[in-house]
Amino acid sequence: MSKLSVKHIPELQNLELLARQVVEGFITGMHKSPFHGFSVEFAEHRLYNKGESTRHIDWKLFAKTEKLYVKRYEEETNLRCHIIIDNSASMDFPKQNKFSLDHLNKIEFSAIAAAALLEILRRQRDAVGLSIYNEELRYYAPEKGSNAHRRMLLKQLEQLLDIKEHKQTATYKVLHQIAEKIHRRSLLFLFTDMFQSDKKEAELFEALRHLKYNKHEVVLFHTFDELLELNFDFDNKPKKFVDIETGEQVNLYADSVKENYKVEVEDYFNKLKMKCMQYKIDYVPVDINKGFDQVLISYVRSRKSFL
């Protein structure tokens, strides 16, 4: 299956249209892959009734028979889904002057990926909720399936592209609050870089475990820029590195710390992956430079295992 890159998506100002573009490209590629059968399965044809929607008319069959037939589908069982997005300052990396599909930062990538999930869930007629947090829970909407509700969530996601709240992260605190709010069994998707200014790793991992409360299925989309945040691929000129959450600064040559830096980050990533395995959380490393397929494929797999 060909990878869908943001570079192959035209510049669209409307997030809903952009999400549809992402999903259409993904489904087109998926029909040529082992994921064939996604969404609803074709069951049979029936004669078209005058006055109804022409959306599902089989025009190829019309060309052969000169009669209007509609494709009938077998709907999959509906599910409840909740999307959780970390909107702390560290998610606003890499910093850029204006929004560009060619160079997304972590929060922009997460917002567009979440909008694509909303579009898929709309097609599946599933209920979806949304939580956005940084130092505290900034927005919470329970799971609903109406179009009005989905558009309200899209508006919140659009604001993530425009409004940057330079706050620190309290993932370890907020996830407990979200877990207590979602009472009915749901499929939870968490977008976060799992970075926080303090070192409360034990509390952070415990908060992840709490998301399994009430038998929820949890997918952690661990978002990062592999080139810069994992490989520390900066030119070897003297630079000032600034923590965008705390404001702490350090002057150094990248090559002088690159090797040790990468060892430390990889160790943390591996520790996070092992904790997710221990808690039966689906850990999905998401390099924001590799397109949205990595998120949508995980959705398809998670849905099949959840239902």
Q: Explain this structure to me?
A:
The protein contains 9 helices and 10 strands. The protein has helices at 15-30, 59-65, 106-124, 147-162, 171-181, 201-210, 226-230, 254-278, 293-306; strands at 41-47, 69-74, 80-86, 127-133, 137-144, 187-192, 217-224, 239-242, 249-252, 282-287. The strands form 3 sheets. Strands 5-4-3-6-7-10 form a 6-stranded mixed sheet, with helices on both faces. A two-stranded antiparallel sheet has the order 1-2. The longest helix has 25 residues, at 254-278. Mean pLDDT is 85; it is low at 1-12.
Tally of individual helices: 9
- Kindly report the spatial arrangement of strands forming the biggest sheet: 5-4-3-6-7-10
Output the CATH topology of the largest domain.
Rossmann fold
From the spread of the alpha carbons, the general shape counts as globular
How far is the N terminus from the C terminus?
25 Å
- CATH-defined architecture of the largest domain: 3-Layer(aba) Sandwich
Q: What is the N-to-C succession of helices and strands? A: HEHEEHEEHHEHEHEEHEH
Instruction: Give the full name of the CATH homologous superfamily of the largest domain.
Output: von Willebrand factor, type A domain
- Count the domains: 2
Backbone CA Rg: 21 Å
Q: Tell me, what is the CATH class of the largest domain?
A: Alpha Beta
Helix content: 40-55%
- The overall pLDDT, averaged over residues, is 85
Classify the secondary structure makeup into a structural class.
alpha/beta
Query: DSSP strand (E) fraction?
Result: 15-25%
Instruction: Let me know the largest β-sheet.
Output: 6 strands, mixed
Topology, number of strands: 10
